Structure formats: C-alpha cells, structure tokens
Amino acid sequence: MESRPPSREERVREDRKELRTLQEENESLIEKLLQVERELNTQLKSGLTRANRFRDFAMYRNTYPPFRNPPAAHAPPTPPFSASCGAQPSGTFTNQPPSFSPLKPAAQKIIMPPGTENNYQVTRVQEELVNWLRGLEIDERSTALIASEAYTKNDLIDFVTRDELLNIGVGGGSSCRIMRAIGEIRERQRRHPVFLSPNRSRDDSLDDYHSSSADDMYTVAAETPSST
C-alpha cells in the first residue's frame, strides 16, 4: 500500500516548526554570545586597572630619588633636614649644625606620590616662588612639581612656557593661571623696562619691576645740580 504524499498544509506546518526551532537555537546562541562578551569586558577592565597600577608604581619607583639612589649598606642613613635640626633620638638638642650630603640633579622629572604634595622642601631662593604660586591659588601638587624642577620665580617669568609646565605634570588650569600672571608681568616690564646697575642683579630684588614714579624721582634727583 503506497503512502500518500504530504499535503501542502502539512509541508507548511513542518517548515514552520523547523523554522521556529532554528529561531530558538539562534536566540539561545545570541544570549550565550552576549554573556561571553560581558565576561570579557569585565576581565578587560580588571586587566587594564591592574596594568595602570603596575605602571604608576613603576614610574614612582624609577623616578623618586630614595628608590633611585639607595644609601650604602655600610653607611647609616642621613636624616632629612627639618626644623628640628640637631635633635637627637633621646629628645636632647646639640649645637652642631646639620650636615648636608650633595645630591646629583635628577635627569627625570620627579613624580610626586599621592599624599606627599605638602612634604616638599624648598630653598631660600624658592620661597618667593612658592609664596607667589600660593597667591595665585595654585594647588600644592603643581607647586611641588614646579619646586622639584629647581625653578625660581624669575625663571618662570623669563624662560618657562606653558608646554614646559604641562610636561612636568602641572594641571591645565594651574598652568593657565600661571601663564596669565606671567603675561601681565611681562607686559608691565615691556611698558616700564628696568635697567639694573652692574652691582645689582635681578635676583637681589623681590619686586617684579620698578615703579615708574620711583624711576622719575631718581632721574630728577640725579639731574638736579647740588647747591654749593
């Protein structure tokens, strides 16, 4: 007995059933792919975070002076200079002046580690620079970075550019305020040039420029003949 061929409606039902099965399998595969993508993104973010931490630690270790120049094993470590110079571990004080060990200038810029921006030390020449930067409301981190490069206030006014400030790590807003103040000082110097005598350098003066009224008074006094 021969089996009759499937009718058109039966073929349509079979095709629809197979199509539905394929569609469900595709949806299941898409859901698995999305799950795998989410897991990969999580692992990638975790790997990038770990790599950034290792990079920051390596930069800090390679540029910060205590790690770059370790003390000799046979020599005791030299205590840093502080306001309590001459203090002994027992709490007594001596009249001996503090000793300084010469340090080679760093070839690389110093990366200030987090939390140590307020612990930097400046020389007497740099005190004017630090006070001037604080007057401009420059953050302590940028001030520490500038001081670590051994700049003075006159160096900033005469030679330093904004690109150099950005290259050592000074923030964009801080560099803008610094360069704006430098531009104003340079403009005043251009309008009122200062001619210092050979016996007096610019570093000896705490002023950015001499007032024109003082110069006029000096000129009048110099030109007035003394009475006999």
From TrEMBL:
- Coiled coil as a keyword of this entry, yes or no, is yes
Q: Which InterPro entries match?
A: SAM/pointed_sf (IPR013761)
The UniProt keywords, alphabetically, are: Coiled coil
List the biased-composition ranges (Pro residues).
68-80
Q: Which residues form a coiled coil?
A: 12-39
Bias class Polar residues marks the residues at: 85-98
Coiled coil listed as a keyword: yes
Region described as Disordered: spans on this chain: 68-103, 194-228
Q: Which segments show compositional bias classed as Basic and acidic residues?
A: 200-210
Protein name according to UniProt: SAM domain-containing protein
